[in-house]
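Lab notebook, entry 250. We have the chain sequence and a SMILES string for nicotinamide-adenine-dinucleotide, and the next step in the workflow is to get a structural model of the bound complex before anyone spends time on docking refinements. Request logged below.

Task: model protein plus nicotinamide-adenine-dinucleotide, output structure tokens.
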Amino acid sequence: MKTVLITGAGIGIGKATAHAFAKDGYRVIVTDVLVDEGNAVAEDIKRAGGSAEFHALDVTSTDQTNAVIAAVETSSGAIDTLVCNAGIAHKVPLDDLSDEKWDHTFDIDLKGMMRAVRAAVPKMKEAGGGSIVCLSSIMGVAYGWDEHVHYSAAKSGVIGLVRGLAVELAASGIRVNGVAPGYVRTAQALSEVHSLGHVGLQAAAEFIPMGRVGEPDDIADVILFLASKAARYMTGQVIAVDGGLLVGRY
Ligand SMILES: NC(=O)c1ccc[n+]([C@@H]2O[C@H](COP(=O)([O-])OP(=O)(O)OC[C@H]3O[C@@H](n4cnc5c(N)ncnc54)[C@H](O)[C@@H]3O)[C@@H](O)[C@H]2O)c1
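Result returned:
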């Protein structure tokens, strides 16, 4: 049985990704700082006949990242697929963008991905390969997002992370790709304080060519594809999954 480890899998896109991999027959390692939500996802998967376990994991901690991945490798062997999904998007105007706020977003949204990759890769190499999928954003690949400069910068950084890792790890049989979601109906996008909120998401549906905002499953299925054998000749790519938003808004 293949093993997938997903960061930030208690809610939103990470949760949908956990269910998509479970349905595809993977053992799912659900990780998050949200302990109750993460445990509930693992329990739901098991109740449906799948294989899952929850580990508390804050991606800002190198020690915890290393410890959780080592524990998973001891019980399940090398991780086949790593999904670096955990992320925050806080609204902070430039005037208020302290070093601490900048660093906090980068610590989760970019460095947190590197921490998980760095911990999982040695055993992936020993096993002869694997795949890694990182979550960027349309705000990283194409748009600028006012009052979210740190987020946009971190999500652009994910593209560089994906490309660099893809080249460095290709000879080891490890593929590294990314997904750049458009507007997806999750707690992040529904936040009235930090993002579009309910009304903003509804308004966005009107200018998205496909006429609706994304659902977490829309993203999860592309992550599953990128991890699968169907994407065996793809590495270093970041795919926008946005209902036609980037190509259609001009
Ligand atoms: N929803 C969107 O419209 C959208 C668009 C583009 C990109 N994304 C990206 O997709 C990913 C998932 O976002 P989502 O919309 O499901 O958001 P969400 O807020 O619903 O979920 C984010 C998850 O990350 C976890 N997390 C936060 N800080 C963490 C930390 N320090 N350690 C471990 N986990 C942590 C949260 O607990 C939560 O489970 C993020 O990287 C996000 O930036 C989302």
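Notes for the group: Residues 148 and 164 are 25 Å apart (CA to CA). Worth checking against the assay data. The mean pLDDT is 97.
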